[in-house]
Amino acid sequence: METLGLLGHGFAMALTPANLLATFIGCLLGQMIGILPGIGPAAGIALLLPITFGVPATTALMMLSGIMYGAMYGGTLTSVLINVPGEAASVMTAVDGHQLAKQGRAGAALSIAAIGSFMAGVGAVALLAFLCQVLGGFALNFNAPEFFLLATLGLTTTASLGSGSTSKALLMAIFGLMVALVGTDPMTGLPRLTFGEMELMDGIDFIPVAVGIFGIGEVLASLEASRTDVSVIKTRLQDLWITWQDFAACRMAILRGGVVGFLVGLMPGVGPVVASMLAYAVEQRASKHPERFGKGALDAVAAAESANNSAVQAAMIPMLALGIPASAATAVLLAALVLLGIRPGPMLMTQQSDLVWGLIASMFIGNFMLVVMNLPMAPLFAASLRFPYDFLAPGILVVSLVGAFATTLSLFNVGITIFFGLVGYLMMKFNLPRAPVVLAIVLAPLMESSLRQSLMLSLGSPMIFLQRPISAVLLVLVLGSLAMPIFRRNKVAAKGDDLDGTV
Amino acid sequence: MRTLDVAPAVVMLGLSALVYAGTRDLAYWSEFTPGPAFLPTWVAGAGVLVSVVILVQAFHKGGSARPEWPDKAGGVRVLLTTLGLILCVPLAPHLGFVATTVVYMVGMMLGILRRKLVPSLLTATVTGGMIYTVFVWWLRVALPIGPLGF
Questions:
Q1: B95-128 in b/e burial notation, b at 16+ Cβ within 10 A?
Q2: Tell me: the pLDDT tens digits for A53-68?
Q3: Does B13 contact A at CB distance below 8 Å?
Q4: How far is A350 from chain B (nearest CA, A)?
């Protein structure tokens, strides 16, 4: 009952004209970012962060989070109409969505994707409202050892649960920690790894790194191939209505996708890409017609889209309640919160409850705005796909430079952005995951301060991490997340041996 | 050779050495608390450990895995785009930030991406105008100003 009262207060905040406008702008920008190749939600939030300077923190946060979940809706259009996922989380949508479009059912695919995203998104936000409070209350028992292990868990699960190589993901998390160590020691004030360079005394700012790695790196990679103007499958407003039979056939896929997405979204470092892949696999097993998957299954589109939107909303829970980002986009959002003068974590729910409940209410409203944008207005957004990418790429690059300059008014930061753009490009070439770098940079200050405080409390004894029950559990989880890939590899190897034996 | 695995591991070995060397003169442990070199030492150690694991895995797997580099034309596009971006940094204080971005965009669209003159000029002007409106006029960001006043 208390939750409903707080949510009602949140709606009163979110429905003010300024906040409604901010939510709408965020959703619209997110929708466009989802449509455009070469820029994802993490880079989008980092790039657009400077335009929120000077507006109240709650309004800014409503806009920035709108970009994050709006991108999930937008990515569907390109996946279905041109078979190019505008956002990585829409990869699985492209598999069946484009097949449906070729069969003349683009409208049905877009429609079920929008409805599935909306239903799963609203469900996830409702759970977010409840769980944030529970988790935030529980986390009030946390102290320095728990926060250190929680931040470490964020990094190790990124490595062990991600889709690529575990060791490479760990290596990139270590690289992120190295970047974060540059600057001034937080306790003694001594310069560290600055090599006499005054500009490095304040450390390497997070925004230039995120904009470089995700924004510039992505654009450079997309410039490798010369582009011919894309052919977009046409869709009309009248095609966007699905039949009751179509919806009835997909309703369980939406539910399953939403649940899978929500659970995956809660785990640090996993994110919407894995959520949509997992939901697709689960749906294929549950479907009465698994043979249709890959050839234009409407329930496959429903499951993948419900999962990615649900995961994005669920990722807000660990970020708001614990201050631990669960994905690259929430890592950028966390950094944005800190820049706006807000410290996420257990105290946030009590000290800034207006902000949290206003944000949650804005997510309900934003999901509603997005379903409107994606049903009657889908043909309008589809028309934007005909705009040649060659005219967009230079714009993205220069906005990256201006955004990097605007955060600190330093040309040195512009240079850092370009440098990390090249690093991001090379990381893509060498199949190195980029999210762990960003997560590590965001988590490093919390990790270092809580580790040093813990060891100070215990007079240098690492036993403090075992003596406290919650930290002992977290330590087991950290070790478990490191051991899981080894266990998984052994299991795969054993399966391989079994198969060899049967041949 | 598995360049795809070996190269990042070697680079990270070098960076780990740099982190260790760069914090060697700082205190590892102060009287009651870990010093400024405490975390860098552990991070450098972890960097060495994971790099060695990747190298061992690469030699164990054997075979060859190389990054997929672009063809010559694609490589030139990426290289020129990057060089243009780097050139923007020293140019911005003299030419003005917005003017530099417009010049860069026109150069990129005409010279690198081989697009037509009029749409390129139009796109660059509109984008420059939007940057000026949002960052200079609305947000009052003090972007470097050149002889043209923007």
A1: bbbbbbbbbbbbbbbeebbebeeeebeebbeebb
A2: 778 888 999 999 999 8
A3: no
A4: 31
Which pLDDT band holds residue A150 (cuts at 50, 70, 90)? confident
- Classify A165 in phi/psi space as left (phi over 0), alpha (psi -120 to 50) or beta: beta
Residue A252 burial (C-beta neighbours within 10 Å; 0-12, 13-18, 19+): middle
How far apart are the CA of B32 and the nearest CA of chain A, in angstroms? 6
Q: Which residues of A touch B101 (CB under 8 A)?
A: 398, 401-402
Cβ of A495: how many Cβ atoms within 10 Å?
10
CB contact under 8 A, B127 and A181: no
CA–CA min distance A108, chain B (Å):
35
Q: How many CB atoms lie within 10 A of CB A382?
A: 22
**What is the ipTM metric for this complex?**
0.95
Give the C-alpha separation, A183 to A205, whole Å: 10
Instruction: Give the Cβ contact number of residue A282 at 10 Å.
Output: 17
Distance in angstroms (rounded) separating the CA atoms of residues A342 and A354: 12
A292: exposed, middle or buried (Cβ count in 10 Å: 0-12, 13-18, 19+): middle
The full set of domain ranges for chain B reads 3-61, 72-138
Contact assignment for B68 to A429 by CB distance below 8 Å: yes
Per CB-CB distance under 8 Å, the chain A contacts of B144 are 411
Closest CA to A262 of A242, A276, A248: A276
Rounded to two decimals, what is the model's pTM? 0.85
Q: Label residues A440-478 b or e (16+ Cβ within 10 Å = b).
A: bbbbbbbbbbbbbbbbbeeeeeeebbeebebbeebbebb
Q: What is the pLDDT of residues A348-404, one digit of tens each?
A: 777 788 888 899 899 999 989 988 888 777 777 777 777 788 888 899 899 889 988
Place of tokens 């300024």: A18
Q: Among partner residues B50, B54, B127, which is closest to A398 by beta-carbon distance? A: B127
User: Would the CB atoms of A405 and B141 count as touching at under 8 Å?
Assistant: yes
The CA distance from A394 to A390, in Å, is 7
